Amino acid sequence: MIIIPLLKGLALTVSRLFTKPITIQYPEKKYKVPARWRGIHFFRKNDAGETTCVACGLCVNVCPNACITLEIGERADGTRYPLKYEIDAWRCIYCGFCQDACPVNAIRLGENYEQAYYRKEDLCLDTKKLLSMNEEKA
Amino acid sequence: MEPIYSIIELVVKNLVVVMVLMGLVAYTTLLERKLLGRIQVRFGPNRVGPFGLLQPIADGIKSFFKEDIIPDEADKTLYVIAPGICLFTALSMFAVIPFGDTVTILGRNIKMVVADIDMGVLYVLALATLGEYGVVLGGWASGSKYGVLGSLRAAAQMISYETALGLAVIGTIILAGSLRLSDIVAAQQVSGWFILKYPFGFIFYIIAGLAEINRTPFDMPESESELACGFNIEYSSMKFATFMIAEYAHMFVVAGVATTLFLGGWSGPYLPGPIWFLIKVFILIFFFIWERGTFPRLRYDHIMKFGWKVLLPLTLLNVVVTALLVALGVIK
């Protein structure tokens, strides 16, 4: 008979009325992301508050979407630093290869998943933004 | 002076019924969203005001400020009045439903019904049919092929279930011996609720009523998920909202008529009549929301097949059996 399954369905849904909703009230309560979650990028800082990036270019090479732009600068003592470092997070697929490839753990993917912006350009992350992301995360 | 008092009484009763009904309709949308949310293990609207209580007002304001598009091809007059026809028929059906006993105010005996006419049941059925004009006109006047097809589909469904709806209520007329809704309530006070004597009629009435007001599982006229709406596809802003309000008002009518015909109307112990009426109506509306959160939507040919091949013969059989039982004196 078709009636019995229909009644069973009604019993199931009415039992749901007495369960606790599993909704997270988002802006007030934030979701705790899993440890391996790959959110938006940030630069780790050294003691001087600058990036630890040595501009080796491995992340640029490994990036499958070619969304990292790197111009290399060289200081007087011969160490290299990123003169211009930009991640187009709009194109990024958050694969985390840059994080894996980095020999000095400079570029990381953080826990920040709130990436809503009014303009596309806002998601183009330069060195300054990447460093400030780090502060937000802490 | 007597005619003037009668007119004042009528106007006041009209205003009260329409105001209360519109308020209830607005908050039923909230109730529906809340309950559907809880059925789906979420909260439902709770952002606007405490517990989301201002949500219907926010929805209303939003509807008013949305862009109101009238298609170039549309028949402008009919396009504008079509949602109004739907709402008008839904609201005017409430005129004959008694929601309480006679009360005495300022020495006048006032019946708690807007118009206690002799052929109340017929009036309800006739206006239920009129509601289809709103749907058909809305679809046709949009000047869109999709609108026309959608409105024809909706009209076919509504007419199919109209017949079953009419047949489902005949038993109560036989049992009460009157078409006047207040007489039917009075008959139930004497002999017990008709749902006990005529249970299948009640079940068939609820099924046909659900199809008649286009609610799940029979909501083919506006199956949002697969057809991107039917007759109201070209409607936007407040005109679209009016169709929705009419649908919810219809829901109240179906629940109100079911209460009157099968559940003893406003009668009940201790509490005043209108309270009992609302309690019974809201129990039925709770059921409508509950089954909406449960049942999947039927396919269109299944709806028509069910309406013509299953529901109509069963209601007809039900009428014949009831008539025989009453004639033989088995049930009174």
Task: Classify the beta-strand content of chain A into a percent band.
Answer: 15-25%
Element string of chain A (H = helix, E = strand): HEHEEHEEH
Q: Sheet bearing the most strands of chain B, described? A: 2 strands, antiparallel
Order of helices and strands of chain B: HHHEEHHHHHHHHH
Compute the number of helices of chain B.
12
Helical stretch tally of chain A: 4
Average pLDDT figure of chain A = 87
- Secondary-structure-based class of chain B equals mainly alpha
pLDDT < 50 runs, ≥5 residues of chain A? none
Largest sheet of chain A: 3 strands, antiparallel
How would you write the strand order of the largest sheet of chain A?
Answer: 2-3-5
Query: What is the helix fraction of residues of chain A, given as a range?
Result: 25-40%
Which ranges of chain B are low-confidence, i.e. pLDDT below 50, for 5 or more consecutive residues? none
State the strand order across the main sheet of chain B.
Answer: 1-2
Rough outline of chain B: globular
Basic shape of chain A: elongated
Mean pLDDT of chain B: 88
Termini separation of chain A comes to 60 Å
Strand content of chain B: under 5%
